[in-house]
Task: structure prediction
Amino acid sequence: MSKPSSPALNRRTVFAGAGAVGALAAAASVLPGQPAATPASTTAAKPAQGGGYRLSEHVKQYYASART
Result:
């Protein structure tokens, strides 16, 4: 049998490539540039009635059906 003309991927080649990609990603995250996307509002507005949970008719119907 003859050897293939192109080098075969072996474990060392794959791990070296993965390490290089990981190092580039880590360096790119540290470099200064555009700031990371931040949420539009860090403090959410409080609901007028307090907790945000309301016992509406469809919720009451669900609880009634779950009891039976």
Remarks:
- The helical segments are 11-30, 57-67.
- DSSP finds two helices and no strands in the chain.
